[in-house]
Design brief:
Elements (H helix, E strand, L loop, with lengths): L2 H19 L23 H25 L4 E2 L4 H7 L7 H19 L4 H4 L2 E4 L3 E4 H34 L1
Parallel strand pairs: 1-2
Antiparallel strand pairs: 2-3
Length: about 170
C-alpha cells in the first residue's frame, strides 16, 4: 500500500482531535443557517466526530472484511443522517468518541498495513462508487478522512463569519 496513504491514515486521529479542538467550545453543537458548500456531510462539529467513528467501524471495517473474505461482494453505503438521529450524535461526549475512534483506527491500521499485493487487488462493488479493489477502498477511506477535516475547517469558517455578521 502507498506509504503516503498509510501515513495519512495513521495521522488522522490526531488531526481530527486537533481540528475539533480548534472549534470554539460554544460552537461544537452549532449549525450554520445553510450547509451550502460544505465539503463533508452536513454535521455539526460533534456530529462529525461521531460519523467518522461509526463509518470506520460499521462501514470500512465491514467493507474490508467482506472484500478480503468474499468473492466480489457488493458493499453497502451507509445513510448517515438517520444514523446520526437514531444515535443522538449531538448529545455525544467528544472525549469518549475520540477515544473510540482511536481504537477503531488502530484496528484499521492493523488491517491495511499488512495487506499483500494479492489482497490489495481483491475486488468488490461499492454502492455509489462502482467496482473497486481493496487498494481503492483504502484510498477512499483516506479521502473520507480528508473530507471531514475539510468539513471542520468549513465549520470554523462559518463560525467566524457568523461572528462578523453579528458585529456588523
Amino acid at each position: 500500500m502507498n506509504p503516503t496513504t498509510l501515513a495519512a491514515l495513521a495521522a488522522f486521529p490526531s488531526q481530527l482531535e486537533a481540528h475539533y479542538a480548534a472549534i470554539p467550545h460554544a460552537f461544537r453543537h452549532w449549525a450554520p443557517p445553510s450547509w451550502e458548500g460544505v465539503p463533508s456531510e452536513a454535521f455539526t462539529a460533534i456530529e462529525q466526530l461521531c460519523h467518522v467513528r461509526d463509518i470506520e467501524v460499521e462501514g470500512y471495517h465491514v467493507r474490508f472484511r467482506r472484500t478480503l473474505e468474499e468473492s466480489h461482494p457488493t458493499l453497502a453505503s451507509i445513510d448517515s443522517e438517520p444514523l446520526a438521529i437514531a444515535r443522538a450524535y449531538g448529545m455525544a461526549d467528544a472525549e469518549k468518541v475520540l477515544a473510540e475512534f482511536r481504537i477503531a483506527r488502530a484496528r484499521t491500521m492493523d488491517i491495511v498495513s499488512n495487506l499483500t499485493d494479492v489482497q490489495l487487488a481483491r475486488t468488490a462493488v461499492f454502492e455509489g462508487y462502482g467496482p473497486l479493489t481493496m487498494r481503492s477502498l483504502v484510498h477512499y477511506l483516506c479521502s473520507h478522512d480528508q473530507q471531514h477535516l475539510a468539513g471542520l475547517q468549513w465549520l470554523a469558517g462559518k463560525i467566524d463569519a457568523s461572528k462578523a455578521a453579528v458585529a456588523a
